[in-house]
Sequence to fold (545 residues):
Amino acid sequence: MTYQVLYRKWRPKTFADVSGQPHIVAALQNEVREGRPAHAYLFIGSRGTGKTSCAKILAKAVNCLHPNGGDPCNECENCRGIDDGSILDVMEIDAASNNGVDSIRELREAVNFTPAVAKYRVYIIDEVHMLSDGAFNALLKTLEEPPPHVIFILATTEAHKMPATILSRCQRFDFARIAPEDIAARLQTVADGEGFTLTDEAAMLLARLADGAMRDALSLTDQCLSRSREIDADVVANATGLAGREHLYALSAAVREHRSGDALALIDKLYNASQDMTRLCTEWLGFYRELMLCKSVERPQDILIATDAELERLKAEAAQYELSAVLYAMDTLQQACQRLQTGADRRLETEMATLRLCNPTLDTSSAALLSRIEMLESAVKRLSAGMPAAPQPAATPPAVKQPAAEEAPVSEPPAPPVSAPAPTPAEPTADDAAAGERPFTAWRDVLERLRETCAPLFGVLENTEAVITDTHIIIYTDNPLFKVLLAGGTNKASLFNAIVDVTGKRYKLGVRAPQAPKAQDTAEDDPLLALLKAGEEGGVPVNRT
Fold:
């Protein structure tokens, strides 16, 4: 015999076989048992939640010759005829391909005929939201007052596309996503019936991948059976292209410890093993969601789908993160998942996101800046508690000693990238060396270039002024955020490159307060300066320039 896939072979035959919809099953059974079925039903829910199965069971139940407590017997000639399609009084119509006015007009004419064999003529219209406006209008009157021998069962995955006039004429049932525990239990029943082995861990993994859809879970199980009849978590991971939990923990550790090289090497290994980058990014995002729940919910086991051992491991991993860092990682991966849909190279998009996660200094967004400040606060707390500070990103420049003079020189960054080389600075002339301080008239041009390359730094310096000497450009600002931003090598390079692009020369930078500091500007009163001072006293490498 021709092989029949699991989701067709194990389609529910009675209401008792329907998983995860007890409220709907109870209502439909009561209506059939009491002999008062409605003339029109509307089943709404996501894919694979049992809408069509319940519709077929209901069609058999109202026409069964020997109903059993609201369930069809599946033994009488009516039940067998409906199952094999020989009884034409039950019709299943696909609205996606029969969505015109003419199709509905033919249906309106057909409903006037009495059933040939069964008690009721039942019309199951699947994906009913696909009907055109004209078809909906043609169906309205018949749907509101059909002949007594006709029952309509409409099914849709998109209730928001249904006209209100249709919704008000039907008895509505909303199908919820099936709980993972219910899916795993059903898969074990199928495994026992089919004679293959399915571990509890593999069943829960399949349930998690199915995302509330029983049909998807059975299809994935069929896919696993093509590899082995002894299905464990490794078989599921290999059959579905999953990255696997160990790889996710390894990626998380590389991000926490700012080991971008190890993270990229792991991405390369997964890519060469034919792992799908979109699936990997989605799983990685889901992993950080689990860490977020572990840090935010008192009993994460009520939400997460995990064994006790795995839950303890998740909690241990979450304890090594600040919540803001987890949210930053989720936001970065969410953006990467969106770009993967339109990007030319999925591997490249994944690698770029990985680098941003490992080194937030490469990201100039406000979220990245907040994450970096959170890292500094965390390091200060760890030092205060007598614990070693968390490792700093490899790309963070070393701290520069603050000179005693009024002007605080800023160390020069590395030369501009090869892809966009800056003009070679000219050596100062004798006239330049003899000149003193003078207003830097091209400062606004420098800020305009900075607006394009580093928006946060431009926002801090927008209303500042500067003077120029033969070797220095001195910026008048007392904004402490300027020094925090310059701690990132990328921001500092952007400022130097903007100056070189405008002047053609390479100058050293100095910072000078525009006026005498006020009492409230001291480190004791300014929280940010106090944070920087505390970090230096605790041994945290903080670049104040």
